[in-house]
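Incident review: delayed structure delivery

Summary: a single-chain prediction request sat in the queue longer than the usual turnaround. Root cause was a stuck worker, restarted by the on-call engineer. No data loss occurred. The affected request and its eventual output are reproduced below so the record is complete for anyone auditing the incident later.

Affected input:
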Amino acid sequence: SFPTVRQATAQALYIRLLEESSDFDLRSSPTHDDADQQHVVPAEQLAEASELVSITPWSTDNEEVLSAALRKMYEAFRIDLPQGGQSMLAPRKTKEATQQ
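Output delivered after worker restart:
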C-alpha cells in the first residue's frame, strides 16, 4: 500500500541524508563548474530536509500534510514541482477499478 511505501522510502532517504556531513551533490557526474552549483544542496538545507523527513507522518492519508511536506522537499532539493496536471501523490484507486 502507498502509506507503507511512503514510510519505507522516507526511512531510506533519512538514513541516506544522515550519511552526508556537508553539501549534498545531486549531479550525476560531479564537475568543478561553479555554474552547475544549482544541483548542490547546502548543508543547512540538507539538515532542514532531514528534519522534515523525520517529523512528517508519511503513513497518513491526509493529502494536505503530504503535499505540503513534498513541496518543501522539492524546494530543499531544488527540484521542479511536477507540471501538466500530474499529482505529487499517486491517485487513489476506486473500488470499481480494483474490482476490474
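Verification: The chain has a mean pLDDT of 79.
Action items: add queue-age alerting; document worker restart procedure.
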